[in-house]
Write a structure and sequence with these properties.
This protein is of the alpha+beta class and 127 residues long. The chain is built from three helices and four strands; from the N terminus they run H-H-E-E-E-E-H.
């Protein structure tokens, strides 16, 4: 079997795993997070990495490699809530202009006249 001749540098992944192994792992973890959120939201997101390479002491054989990573997850759709505006410009879940169907006392006493086994209404008081 003939040997393959190596032309050019090794793969980027091999270089990254050798010189910046924590970046390699962090990229893989962030990519998994990104994929999870894209699947959950049906929206796009991005994962970007920038490498900065600078010479040490002006030399040509020693460099410092830094990286910066930016993960932008897709935003989940937030559902709105309906609310009524009160006289003082506050918000309320119930309509402040309508009368309640039941008073607080009615709600507290609701279970007193119901058979817990059958759910059947017993005698209603004052009826």
């Amino acid at each position: 079997m003939a040997e393959k001749k190596k032309d050019g540098p090794p793969s980027f992944a091999a270089i990254l795993a050798t010189i910046r192994p924590s970046t390699d792992v962090e990229l893989a973890e962030n990519l998994a997070k990104l994929i999870e959120e894209v699947k959950a939201t049906g929206k796009k997101g991005t994962l970007s990495v920038v490498f900065e390479v600078k010479p040490v002491n002006g030399g040509d054989r020693l460099v410092i490699v830094n990286d910066a990573m930016k993960l932008r997850l897709p935003e989940r759709t937030r559902e709105g809530t309906t609310a009524f505006v009160t006289d003082g410009n506050g918000l309320s879940r119930s309509d402040p202009t309508s009368s309640p169907l039941f008073t607080d006392e009615d709600i507290r006493d609701a279970g007193a006249n119901v058979d817990p086994r059958t759910g059947e209404i017993k005698e209603t008081p004052n009826a």
